[in-house]
Amino acid sequence: xxxxxxxxxxxxxxxxxxxxxxxxxxxxxxxxxxxxxxxxxxxxxxxxxxxxxxxxxxxxxxxxxxxxxxxxxxxxxxxxxxxxxxxxxxxxxxxxxxxxxxxxxxxxxxxxxxxxxxxxxxxxxxxxxxxxxxxxxxxxxxxxxxxxxxxxxxxxxxxxxxxxxxxxxxxxxxxxxxxxxxxxxxxxxxxxxxxxxxxxxxxxxxxxxxxxxxxxxxxxxxxxx
Length: 225
Known about the structure:
Blueprint: E1 4-6, E2 11-13, E3 17-20, E4 25-28, E5 37-39, E6 47-52, E7 55-62, E8 67-71, E9 78-82, E10 85-90, E11 96-98, E12 111-116, E13 119-120, E14 129-130, E15 134-139, E16 142-150, E17 161-163, E18 169-180, E19 188-193, E20 195-200, E21 203-204, E22 214-222
Parallel strand pairs: 4-5
Antiparallel strand pairs: 1-2, 2-3, 3-4, 6-7, 7-8, 9-10, 10-11, 12-15, 13-17, 14-16, 15-16, 16-22, 17-20, 18-19, 18-22, 19-20, 20-21
């Protein structure tokens, strides 16, 4: 290893470590550090590691496709603080909590957006018109859905049920919204599993009651997982 000392510009260079005193920069793997601490890896996996007594606790590296930040020792968690107070925590075992809360039940461990298709679950094989792209958002186990569909003209007397919810409901929930039909105004939809049973004035509706009706509905429910 060659060494060069240049007291004129305040630089100490060992090829792998450069201390530029004139600019208050330190370079690792680079002869020209552009920041107070500049690490230049030769290959994927090179990065910054903190260890104590031979045990690695914290690592930042570039895998070649992603930036990887992880704790690796003793079940450590990543905690964010501002002005001395905890504002966020990535829990050991998964999930994000806020403002000093460490409870697993309160951790956000899932977020998802997607689309789904409303189906006829009555057994009559009806083809519903999907008036828009049906969307949902899932935060943890809380699922928010929106849909806008129109029933076809039908005289079928099967009990009216809609299906296709993106996740199965844990408990009964009810959706409401705008429903237009001569025999279906002010309907509510009782959610069970991935289906919705349609009620009006405390009684169920048939498909015939909903002939040509449209449903513009928003609601939320708790999923089983």
